[in-house]
Description:
Layout: H1 2-6, E1 12-17, H2 21-32, E2 37-40, E3 56-57, H3 61-65, H4 69-85, E4 90-99, H5 104-119, E5 128-131, H6 132-138, E6 149-158, H7 160-173, E7 177-179, E8 182-190, E9 193-201, E10 206-217, H8 223-230, E11 238-249, E12 258-261, E13 270-275, E14 278-282, E15 286-287, H9 299-312, E16 324-333, E17 348-352, E18 358-362, H10 368-383, H11 417-426, H12 442-451, H13 457-464, H14 467-470, H15 472-490, H16 494-509, E19 517-518, E20 521-522
Parallel strand pairs: 1-2, 1-10, 2-7, 4-12, 10-18
Antiparallel strand pairs: 3-6, 4-6, 5-6, 8-9, 9-10, 11-14, 11-15, 11-16, 12-13, 13-14, 17-18, 19-20
Amino acid sequence: MLHKVQNMSEIWDLIIIGGGATGLGTAVDAASRGFKTLLLERDDFAKGTSSRSTKLVHGGVRYLQQGNVSLVMEALAERGLLIQNAGHLVRNQPFLVPHYDWWEGPYYGLGLKVYDMLAGKLGLGSSKHLSRKKTLECVPTLVPEGLRGGVIYYDGQFDDSRLAINLAKTSAEHGGVLLNYMKVTGLLKYKETIQGVKAIDTLNNEEYTIKARCVINATGVFTDSVLKMDDPDSKPIIVTSQGIHIVVDKHFLPGDTAIMIPHTDDGRVLFAVPWHNKVILGTTDTPVDCISSEPRAMNNDIEFLLNHASKYLSAHPSRSDVRSVFAGLRPLVKMDNMKKTATLSRDHTVIVAPSGLVTITGGKWTTYRKMAEDVVDQASIVAGLPPVQCVTENLRIHGWLKNMDKEDPLYYYGSDKLEIQKLVDQNPDLGNKLHERLPYIKAEVIWATRNEMAMTVEDVSSRRTRALLLDTKASEEMAPEVARLMALEADYDDMWIKSQVESYRELARSYQLQSRQDAGISLLI
Length: 525
């Protein structure tokens, strides 16, 4: 990829700043239309918000509650397309809405029937009422006192950072060039019109001046910083909200059915979702002013989730049960007279500046494909490119494979699983687990380093595998072996190994709960 940038004699059609869900989706759309496409990400692909989601591909029940029917319909349509195009990563997930008051059954039942209707032919199954007995059979760990029954419905569940990596590979297969650890430091201008970007490869400090017909700002919560590169007087358009998740062991929610609680104290939906043989509890909605690539969970939010989970789960999860806690920031588009971030819109917005900078922001993972289509349509006009129709509606994502066995520990690699198995066949030691509490094997480290642009131990343990999120302590314990295997593959020295292990251990401690508190903030140290 670096070689292509260094030797590109022509001007790029489109340069995309940002390697999260929106930027990667845009890179797929643009490259599949035949445009010369370059994506630059300052950290790793999906380092920020796009690897810290609730792992759901969904229409958004709470948006239906708010009356935003158009957003729900769009998201449900995109959910159906994503299950068709990335079946190795997206699955049909049953959700149970328990009800303890007499009115909740008919109220939620009617709402979810409308949800089914809006999905149309792309629906995943019809919702239905369950008796108290059937409800407890589905989720035996529900608090039984006062339980009247439940409503079951169907939505999508996925692995967010694995989809991000597969989108990067899909774009590359169509000629796109994508670089992580390439930080954009400025915009090139001629007579107030953007002509490209200045960037630096943060791994080796090499600087680049890269020209393009159009630059797309797809930087999520960092949108305003790129807008200020273009116009220092530009007003902020992003309001940032932090959502946290905690991960606990499977015995808190045995079986395959997730739980959805439609209304919590902060107005958000609460989920308990089975994921990679663990359970994710989330999420919160807390306005924050500080934007960081490593946001930290606040103690109040942790207690909020644990307390709400204990209201509905008979085996009350406590701080000592938490395997990992992670936080993500949502880029919400600022709207007048909206005070609570829980009520801000997740609709996406495309903005074209007088300089020609095209910005895409807002939205959510589920609608990334439609966001990409909209922004490439607009950017191609700005760039003066020939009109080419979007083809991603029926474009299969890299790794697509029909009838994947979801019980196979390597299922999320899809068609790449065969290549990983070849590594094990050549060297049986690579078939051994990296840690007894996690499903990951040594071959996955080699594969990520060789074929998925993993540059650090964090890249492998957080986003190529999900070890950091599933069991932070276990991921810390396997870090030396991950570093050793990466060094073996990429010819790094012992100093690199030592530095990587130290850096990763410092990061991992921020995903672990400690009992100490300071000024109401959990010391995640």
